């Protein structure tokens, strides 16, 4: 028996208008636990690291952060010897399983950025837009097949109190106008930001970045978990080692090889479903000619988009932290959450009754308390790290790559001078406080969503100290 979600005194639209449970079960019945973006994708396999190697720069981790770092390092200095060492496969983790919203924002949205770095926020916005433009030109320059579409994002209000949050937006759309674009009976208003988001195929972007890196002369090693970063610096795996001038740690949500960073992030599981390709009739019933990425405005929000073959990828809402903060594939199967997502999809688009969900998957998000990446140097400034993208790292990882290379070069740049780059987030407390605090915060955010967005004392206190929990 599948449960579809809690009901409270002021239920959200997804609780007020759920589809019949049987419809949800029917839609999910044939789904496979498999990341749609990695399903059947052609990929190049790289060897394991065996024996002693030398490099100018060794990058640990082959997600976007590591891959962009290697590509940017070669673009800046083609003669530099660069090696990437990856524990599993290129792009298997967050980089291959995300929503593909490649955003200009470096700060997990304008509100978060402005509230923390008001004085430099305009500069952060300028750098973020330039970064997104440069991602687009890089994709074109290397003829990367990443299915990049600069369609923008449509933010939609699905509860009356959210309409005011959009009212000042230059792209404001009233209910009629937003439903002209995408026809959901849950939409009360919207705002279309046309330039600040591109959609990408996450898996293809990772594999294409690896292809470009190799073309530029980077060596990639897979199935080689790095066990230590020792003085030298030298990084060691079970069967090999790389002696390098500089090391970049691009290990995201996985246990940091530096002790000092262990409490800076917590893994928060985010869940996603993908439908079968929509038929012409289903597409006509929904509209969505502009193929925008869409996100609603609740604390527990949904994000969704079309794929190249017109499936809907629909994710978000539940953000699940597990006691102990571990990353485990066992956490990825969560029937209630997939049922909830399917139910919410059918509430959003009742025209799609009967649509089959073909894929369901999850990934761990590296949440930090300020919701955007932090950076730093260690070991006599020869090891640089970035982590904590908190669900918005597709675009920001390229900016991070440049920050990491700037930091290692040791010469101040417009990036390294930013307070956002120099400051570190407040760490999460160890267990049992982490679980307790995250549960209470999560509960408070659900409550705010059912209470016209009003934040309780806990959320206000966290806002006041610049700390929070998000996905
Ligand atoms: C379900 C989901 C949806 C998301 N949606 C979006 C979105 O729409 N837009 C957006 O901007 N962001 C989104 N994100 C976040 C985004 O995917 C990440 O911020 C981004 O991919 C981070 O890239 P990364 O390279 O830092 O990390 P990863 O892709 O996680 O790569 C880290 C790599 O390091 C390797 N590694 C770790 N430890 C070691 C070690 N000791 N030795 C060797 N290798 C190691 C891992 O194996 C892994 O391959 C989403 C994330 C998830 C999980």
Q: What does the model show?
A:
The relative contact order is 0.18. The strands form three sheets. The chain has a nine-stranded mixed sheet. It has helices at residues 13-16, 21-28, 64-76, 94-97, 110-116, 121-141, 160-167, 175-181, 202-215, 280-286, 335-348, 396-409, 419-422, 433-449, 457-465; strands spanning 32-33, 51-60, 82-85, 101-103, 153-157, 172-174, 189-193, 197-199, 219-221, 228-230, 234-236, 240-249, 265-275, 293-296, 302-306, 312-320, 357-368, 374-378, 383-387. It has 15 helices and 19 strands. With 471 residues, it is of the alpha/beta class. Helix content is 32%, strand content 22%. The radius of gyration is 22 Å and the shape is globular. Bound molecules: flavin-adenine dinucleotide.
Low-pLDDT ranges = 1-8
The strands making up the biggest β-sheet line up spatially as: 1-17-13-16-15-14-5-7-6
What is the tally of beta strands?
Answer: 19
Cofactors, ions, other ligands = flavin-adenine dinucleotide
- Classification by helices and strands: alpha/beta
Taking all residues together, what is the mean pLDDT? 93
Name the quaternary structure. Answer: single chain
Q: What is the first-to-last residue Cα distance?
A: 28 Å
Q: Strand share of the residues?
A: 15-25%
Q: Report the biggest beta sheet as strand number plus sense, adding barrel if it closes.
A: 9 strands, mixed
Individual helix count: 15
């Amino acid at each position: 028996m599948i449960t579809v979600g809690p009901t409270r005194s002021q239920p959200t639209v997804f609780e007020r208008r759920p589809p019949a449970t049987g419809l949800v079960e029917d839609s999910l019945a044939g789904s496979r636990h498999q990341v749609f973006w990695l399903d059947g994708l052609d990929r190049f396999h790289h060897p394991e690291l065996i024996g002693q190697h030398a490099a100018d720069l060794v990058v640990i981790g082959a997600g976007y952060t590591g891959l962009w770092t290697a590509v940017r390092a070669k673009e800046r200095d083609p003669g530099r010897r660069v090696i990437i060492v990856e524990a599993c496969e290129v792009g298997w983790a967050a980089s291959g399983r995300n929503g593909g919203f490649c955003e200009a924002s470096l700060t997990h949205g304008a509100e978060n950025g402005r509230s923390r770095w008001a004085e430099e926020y305009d500069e952060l916005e300028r750098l973020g837009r330039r970064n997104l433009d440069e991602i687009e030109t890089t994709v074109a320059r290397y003829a990367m097949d990443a299915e990049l579409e600069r369609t923008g994002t449509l933010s939609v209000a699905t509860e009356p109190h959210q309409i005011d949050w959009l009212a000042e937006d230059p792209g404001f759309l009233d209910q009629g106008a937003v439903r002209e674009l995408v026809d959901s009976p849950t939409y009360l208003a919207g705002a279309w930001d046309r330039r600040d988001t591109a959609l990408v195929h996450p898996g293809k972007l990772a594999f294409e970045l690896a292809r470009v890196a190799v073309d530029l002369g980077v060596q990639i090693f897979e199935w080689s978990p790095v066990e230590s970063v020792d003085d030298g610096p030298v990084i060691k795996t079970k069967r090999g080692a790389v002696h390098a001038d500089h090391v970049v740690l691009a290990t995201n949500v996985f246990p940091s090889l530096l002790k000092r960073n262990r409490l800076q992030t917590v893994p928060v599981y985010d869940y996603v479903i993908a439908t079968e390709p929509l038929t012409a009739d289903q597409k006509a019933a929904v509209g969505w000619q502009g193929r925008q990425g869409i996100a609603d405005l609740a604390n527990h929000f949904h994000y969704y988009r079309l794929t190249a073959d017109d499936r809907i990828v629909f994710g978000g809402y539940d953000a699940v932290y597990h006691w102990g903060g571990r990353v485990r594939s066992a956490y990825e199967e969560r029937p209630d959450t997939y049922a909830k997502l399917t139910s919410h999809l059918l509430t959003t688009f009742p025209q799609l009754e009967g649509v089959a969900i073909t894929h369901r998957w999850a990934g761990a998000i590296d949440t930090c308390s300020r919701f955007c990446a932090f950076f730093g140097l260690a070991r006599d400034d020869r090891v640089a790290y970035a982590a904590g993208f908190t669900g918005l790292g597709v675009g920001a990882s390229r900016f991070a790559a440049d920050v990491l290379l700037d930091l290692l070069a040791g010469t101040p740049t417009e990036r390294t001078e930013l307070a956002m780059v120099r400051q570190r987030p407040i760490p999460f407390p160890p267990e049992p406080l982490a679980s307790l605090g995250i549960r209470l915060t999560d509960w408070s955010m659900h409550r705010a969503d059912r209470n016209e967005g009003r934040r309780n004392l806990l959320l206000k206190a966290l806002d006041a100290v610049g700390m929070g929990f998000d996905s």
